[in-house]
Specification:
This protein has 402 residues and is an alpha+beta fold. The protein has 3 domains: 114 residues, Acyl-CoA dehydrogenase/oxidase, N-terminal domain (Butyryl-Coa Dehydrogenase, subunit A, domain 1); 125 residues, Butyryl-CoA Dehydrogenase, subunit A, domain 2; 141 residues, Butyryl-CoA Dehydrogenase, subunit A, domain 3. Helices cover 49% and strands 14% of the residues. Keywords: FAD, Flavoprotein, Oxidoreductase.
Length: 402
């Protein structure tokens, strides 16, 4: 492994950083997040057309740029730096990844080009939080000690699917709801993970549902982080087509997709943590106390040095995980755990060292603090991610490396 980034990778990150610095400042992010869709549609289309952001890691034959996992991680890092409210994670990573992994060649040809161009967006509808549904962490309610957590949800709850006997086109009917669908309230296309087969032949199958299909009801949840759109999706006898072979359980594919998502979320968290640290360092150099800048106090230097070490460690872990890929689950899980921890520490220190001004709800430090809290609820918490990694590595008693 060569840890140094290539010139092309540096240029990708720099180009995206420059574009977002001009078009996605804190004021623009607040306005976009508070809009009806929750993101700036025109900005997303420009980023897709000019920089290929929407299809960065998708194959060229499907309209993508054809780059790799490291380039996508660098793009997510820059998006996280400004807390960009966009379909990048939900559509370009999760939904597009599910279609690529589970869809037939005809389905990939039909669905991916519109996502790669930014003309349409998609959302992956999962039971429960992404951390549980994608097998990133054990469910503390049912598995207080780390254990196997099948992706796609349990035998009850979530969305249930059953074939329609009279349908000549092989349609299925979906019924149920999902509470934590990233971009579920605003996407054009829904990729729904549904349970079918009953108890004896229990399996999870993915289905493709246009968002305007009768029987689909969606609403945006009032989460603590407006920059990360989470929606509640209800399906009431909705006709749908299976994505790929409906006789095959997609649990293993969702688990692998979860590791891809872990790398992307880790990259976003690293970018957010680095920006929170940079803004705090800038502030402590101008804030005066006892006739001198508080940044000159040794205690403040030590606190910021600890944050710097946490951020750089998380970034190294994230880049290694991106290089290793989802076939090695431990690096992905540990990278996400390190990144979420660094993001929380950086955001908390930003509020502390900004003093009384950062207590106000309108201060930008709160954007980073709320992103850190929301990410841990959706994709963590870090101690469960580490427990899952330890189990997979065979560190815990009774575990075997896999």
């Amino acid at each position: 492994m060569d840890p140094a980034l290539t010139q092309e990778q540096d240029e990708i990150a720099r180009a995206l950083r420059d574009a977002l610095a001009k078009q996605a400042g804190p004021d623009e992010v607040r306005v976009a997040a508070a809009s009806s869709l929750g993101y700036d549609v025109e900005l997303w289309k420009r980023l897709a057309e000019q920089l290929g952001l929407a299809g960065l890691a998708l194959p060229e034959r499907h309209g993508g740029t054809g780059l790799g996992r490291v380039e996508l991680a660098l793009a997510c890092e820059e998006a996280g730096r400004v807390l960009l409210s966009s379909p990048l994670l939900a559509s370009s990573v999760l939904a597009a990844g599910a279609i690529t992994a589970c869809g037939t060649e005809e389905q990939r040809d039909a669905l991916l080009p519109a996502l790669a161009s930014g003309a349409q967006t998609a959302a992956l509808v999962l039971p429960g939080t992404p951390a549980l549904a994608l097998g990133l962490a054990p469910d503390p309610r049912t598995a207080p000690l780390p254990g196997d957590v099948p992706s796609g949800g349990g035998r009850a709850g979530g969305v249930q699917a059953k074939p329609v006997p009279s349908a000549e086109d092989g349609s299925w009917s979906l019924y149920g709801e999902a509470e934590y669908a990233l971009d579920g309230a605003r996407a054009d296309l829904l990729v729904v993970a549904a349970h079918t087969g009953g108890f004896p032949r229990s399996r999870t199958v993915l289905f493709v549902v246009p968002a305007d299909t009768p029987g689909v009801h969606r609403e945006r949840s009032a989460g603590i982080d407006q920059t990360r759109s989470v929606g509640r999706v209800e399906l009431r006898d909705v006709p749908a087509q299976p994505l790929g072979d409906p006789t095959v359980d997609v649990g293993p594919a969702l688990t692998r997709l979860g590791r891809e998502a872990a790398i992307a979320v880790a990259a976003e968290a690293v970018g957010a943590a680095a920006q929170a640290l940079a803004r705090t360092v800038e502030y402590v150099q101008v804030r005066q106390q006892f006739g001198r800048a508080i940044g000159s106090f040794q205690a403040v230097k030590h606190r910021l040095a600890d944050v710097y070490v946490a951020v750089e460690t998380a970034r190294s872990a994230m880049l290694y995980a991106a290089w290793a890929g989802p076939d090695q689950p431990v690096p992905a899980l540990l990278a996400l755990a390190h990144a979420l921890t660094a993001q929380r520490v950086a955001a908390a220190e930003a509020i502390q060292l900004h003093g009384g001004i950062a207590i106000t709800w309108e201060h930008d430090a709160h954007l980073y603090f709320k992103r850190a809290a929301a990410d841990e609820l959706l994709f963590g918490p870090p101690h469960l991610l580490r427990a899952r990694a330890a189990e997979l590595a065979g560190v815990l008693a009774g575990g075997e490396p896999r």
